[in-house]
Amino acid sequence: MNPKLLHGNLEPIVIKLLLEQGELYGYEITTLVKGISNMKLVLTEGALYPILHKLEAKGTITSETRKVDNRFRKYYRLSPDKKKETTAQLAEMDQYIQTLIHIFNPKLT
Fold first, then answer.
1. Which option is the CATH number for 3-108: 3.30.300.30, 1.10.10.10, 1.10.760.10, 3.60.21.10?
2. Contact, 76 vs 62, CB < 8 A?
3. What is the pTM of this model?
4. What are 73's strand-pairing partners?
């Protein structure tokens, strides 16, 4: 799959996963995306971390570093005060996806 398609949708993917899972560290996010998509979407750390930093700078997510098995992991979670906003973003994304389905495969709608 074209990496440009994935890159344009990374923010809502990360937001959706954090909304569902509560908190995740970067490698977990890449692994979840691969698993959920049956390896059709491969999210590299080089693509993921700039998105995480951007979302954190906007205040959409927060992070906490913890020591796990003598390694430091940075866990990300949605900011509590941004949940309403992120839910609205995901609803907008869902509407966009439904529109694309209607355009590319009207028999499914």
1. 1.10.10.10
2. yes
3. 0.84
4. 66
How much of the chain is in helix, strand and coil states, percent to nearest 5? 65, 15, 20
Orientation of helix 45-58 relative to helix 26-36, angle to 10°? 120
CB 60 within 8 A of CB 79: yes
Residue carrying the six token digits 């691969």: 34
Low-confidence residues in the chain, pLDDT < 70? 1-3, 5-6, 108-109
**For position 109, what pLDDT does the model report?**
57
pLDDT digits over 55-66, tens only?
A: 999 999 999 999
Amino acid present at 66: R
